[in-house]
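Sharing a chain and its predicted structure for anyone who wants a worked example. Both blocks are below, sequence first, tokens second.
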Amino acid sequence: MTTEQRTHAPTRALRIVLVDDHAIVRHGLRSILERESDLDVVGEASTAAEAAAVVEQTRPSIVLLDLKLSTAADTEGLDLCARLTQRHPELAVLVLTTFLDDLLVVEAIRHGARGYVVKDVDTTELLRSIRAVARNESAFDSHAAAAMVRSMRVQPERPKFTERELRVLQLLAHGLSNREIGGELYISETTVKFHVRNIMRKMDASSRAEVVYEASKLGVI
């Protein structure tokens, strides 16, 4: 964990924590932000666990959050955003990421983010976005704003699931294994695998994590 906590930061400064799995990105952001008299980088983190600890320790005003924190799960940043904003309602989360997917922008907002900008944003726009979310305003760069508009126009078609498939989906979302799901539903592990394969096919998903993510986006679970 790379953390620099300042206990005597100016009272008017916005306290910022940087959450990104690339140290070079965090260092670059720090060098940009600390040129501003009203911004103070009080901590850094490279993982979700580190971020939760650093936020708890430093109590920042703002978290700059990358959505992709590891190769393990594409939704890790979204989950972290939800946890942070639920635990610290006053915290402003600004997503700063390389990913620009229309529905991902919407999901970030649904998970508690106040703004969404991509990493090719210029410095002026980034600073404007940081100060906007600090004022409890929304902040989107031009790419994210366009994605937001498109996502509101186009609603994805919702797959049709049987009652049993919906129950399997709910248990998948709780992280249960095939064996555990079988135990809950009093069916064999082979039958569970059959249902999971059908669900993945209907959602055009390649992993259980993607199934849960897509199902949550569609409001299925």
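Comments welcome. Residues 2-10 have pLDDT under 50 and may be disordered.
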